[in-house]
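User: Run a structure prediction on this.
Assistant: Running it now.
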Amino acid sequence: MEQLRLSPSRINDFNNCPQLYKYRAIDQLPEPPSIDAERGKLIHSVLEDLFEEKIEDRTIVTALNLLPKAWEEHLLSQPELAQLVLDEKEWMDRAGSLLSSYFTLENPQSFDSTFRELHLEQNLSEEIYLHGYVDRVDIAPTGEVRIVDYKTGKSPKPGWEEKALFQLRVYALLYWQNHGVLPRLLKLIYLGDQKIVESSPTEVQLKSTEKILLNIGEEILSAIETKHFPTKKSRLCDWCFFKTICPAHN
């Protein structure tokens, strides 16, 4: 059996519904682009480019000026987006609003970002490979590390923050294993409602995260071996593209 490739998004798929994981990771069935996901990619690319600018030029004006070029590049790479975005002015206005929200939450002129879209990877075992792309890693002059992830949606409801932070703990674990430095802060920036969720990871938490990942990996390997991917009905089914072919709904 080939080594299992895990990422936070595939782990989330399996936890939400093993059948969804099968459709995406095993069967690799095509899905149409999601307007929310594509908006997120656009905002991420602008913020990534923003930190390539000189520190004094990292302003909302610069970000808004970067937006049309980023959108043009997205259209060139994915022409089908033109059919998805029916009202381009509304689309760009919404993107501009999200960028404006970013500047209410952080001042990019007050620090330098060390890495953007940093790829981290590690073999959890001989059978399981884990990787992920981190939106931003900031390393302070003191050596302290901050891992940042942008979200264009709204922040989780009270009590659901831990589930949202799991993705960043995966990144923190990978960074710790790759660089030997325990990140000082994990930061989720929610542009949809202008909120921030933060956490300071501990060695105990990250070791626990590693055990959880190994357990999930073993569950997936078992599902692959037995070819058994049970469905898990939830409210998420209403947004699932595969609902029409899912055994739970047919």
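The first helix runs from residue 8 to 16.
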